Amino acid sequence: MQKTITVTVNESVETHQVQSNQTLLNFLRETLDLTGAKEGCNEGECGACVVLLDGKAINSCMTLAVEVDGHQVTTIEGIGDVDRPHPIQQAFLKNQAVQCGFCTPGTILTAVSLLAENPNPNEQEVREALAGNLCRCTGYRQIIDSVLAAAAILPKGGGQ
Ligand code: FES
Ligand code: FES
Questions:
Q1: Do residues 62 and 93 both lie within one domain?
Q2: 61 CA to middle of ligand 1, Å?
Q3: Most C-beta atoms within 10 A of its C-beta, which of 9, 20, 85, 136?
């Protein structure tokens, strides 16, 4: 069954027909051509597909497109780019927290969500927030350091 949804994605209002069983991840990647959110496990275990729904990190593989009707979704494409990287992206580069990069969009969006809620996290809080974001490359030290470094320089009151 199809349904029409209207969702704001990275500040662009999008109205599309979706299948009732289409995931948000599939909608973003296939319908909107926003491929920053990655398809990893597709079962809520790896965090590669994390996007922000009304500012909170969620697994887009476990969310239906129909569920975001009327809401606001932010993907990594809406956070920053090569010319205007977000401070968390800058911190990841500076601390060499990116290797293959597959986990990076989801990890950064989880960090954005964390810092919006808790602008001064300690290391344990960063580790807990990122527990659902698996990285096979970095060993996590550089990722944790990057989030703490970004927290130290971001204006308080929001990580976005
Ligand atoms: S692809 Fe969504 S959690 Fe792994
Ligand atoms: S940088 Fe490769 S999985 Fe994290």
A1: no
A2: 6
A3: 9
d(CA 134, ligand 2 centre) in Å: 8
pLDDT at position 59 is 98
Residues 7 and 36 in one domain: yes
Residue 156 is predicted with a pLDDT of: 72
Q: Is 39 in the pocket of ligand 1 (CB under 6 A)?
A: yes
CATH of the domain at 47: 3.10.20.30
Q: Which domain holds residue 39?
A: 2-78
Q: So what's the pLDDT on residue 157?
A: 54
Identify the residue whose C-alpha is closest to ligand 1 atom 3: 44
| Nearest CA owner, ligand 2 atom 4 | 135
For 143-155, the pLDDT digits (tens) are 999 999 999 998 8
Mean pLDDT of 94-101: 96
Number of structural domains the chain divides into: 2
102: Cβ below 6 Å to ligand 2? yes
Compute the average pLDDT of residues 9-35: 98
3-state secondary structure the chain: CEEEEEEEECCEEEEEEEECCCEHHHHHHHHCCCCCCCCCCCCCCCCCCEEEECCEEEEHHHCEHHHHCCCEEECHHHCCCCCCCCHHHHHHHHCCCCCCCCCHHHHHHHHHHHHHHCCCCCHHHHHHHCCCCCCCCCCCHHHHHHHHHHHHHCCCCCCC
